[in-house]
Write a structure and sequence with these properties.
The chain is of the alpha+beta class and about 290 residues long. It is about 15% helix and about 40% strand.
């Protein structure tokens, strides 16, 4: 009896000691919670989904994982599967009239999205915006766009920004920001005197007026001479350079006409306001561009 009693006591003590020293198992985390934790630690461009059949989170990472991500995955063995793939990014369709920014240049405005015979897509804008010394990395509405690629200024005042391969900006179809929505540009033409046209600028928005003269030469206050411009009574503001000039036939299918070079700085509403545009057909011929339809 004594031996049996001692054996039972030893077994009980052994169980108590074993329970005291055994590592506590981590409580299972809900897959949705685990995914949220991993997403917060994942690099930009990553995607994470739940494989309910396997009971784990499957992650495709946009770059090398952080130490925090690796630690989380290690803390949940068998419940996280990951690999590195192509990064995901937001997609935004370019609109003429949106702002162009560059750390080394004054802000400008996007004109027209175009495709070229070389297979690349471009944003047409004013040449003085992308002239030498103005930096190489442009953003459109805050999104990475690409480098200024070609320009003609002075003499002319137009240039193009190439849409980089890693840009989230798409250019199909050619759109203009027209009173808050993207409206397609389905043709191009040359204006006539007295015709009513509009422009869409990043600063002053959509403003309209008449064509006053063609083939105008302007000498700017900094000394640059620009030829062959369209003179209009359409108001614009600093930062609107590159704005698309267009005609709305009434069916909201727009006709592209030109790209803003500059103006006399007279405020909107003043009858003396004057602005000057490069003819769009000239720009397209110079660089082998066409609308994206």
């Amino acid at each position: 009896m004594y031996r049996s009693h001692m054996s039972s006591l030893l077994v009980a003590l052994l169980l108590i000691v074993t329970a005291a020293v055994a590592p506590a198992r981590q409580a299972a985390v809900d897959p949705g919670q685990l995914r949220a934790q991993l997403a917060a630690a994942a690099p930009g461009g990553s995607t994470l989904r739940i494989d309910h059949a396997a009971g784990k989170v499957v992650a495709t990472l946009g770059a090398q994982p952080s130490e925090e991500f690796l630690s989380l995955a290690a803390a949940h063995p068998g419940r996280v599967s990951w690999h590195i793939g192509s990064g995901v990014r937001p997609l935004i369709t370019a609109r003429g009239g949106w702002g162009l920014t560059n750390p080394f240049a004054a802000p400008c405005t996007a004109g027209f999205a175009m495709k070229a015979v070389n297979g690349f897509n471009y944003i047409v804008t004013a040449g003085h915006c992308v002239a030498d010394g103005m930096g190489t990395q442009w953003n459109l509405a805050g999104y990475l766009l690409g480098p200024g690629h070609f320009h003609s200024f002075p003499g002319n005042d137009y240039g193009v920004i190439m849409v980089a391969y890693n840009s989230p900006v798409t250019t199909h179809p050619t759109l203009i920001n027209y009173n808050g929505s993207g409206v397609r540009v389905l043709g191009t033409n040359t204006p006539t005197i007295g015709q009513r046209l509009c422009k869409s600028g990043n600063v002053s928005g959509v403003t309209c007026g008449t064509v006053l003269a063609l083939d105008v030469t302007v000498t700017y206050h900094t000394g640059e001479v620009v030829n062959g411009l369209i003179e209009t009574a359409i108001c614009a503001s600093p930062g609107d350079s590159g704005s698309p000039l267009f005609r709305d036939p009434g069916d909201r299918r727009l006709i592209g006409m030109g790209v803003l070079s500059g103006g006399n700085g007279v405020r909107c509403g003043d009858p003396g306001v004057r602005t000057y545009y490069n003819p769009l057909t000239e720009i397209m011929a110079a660089y082998g561009l066409s609308l994206i339809k």
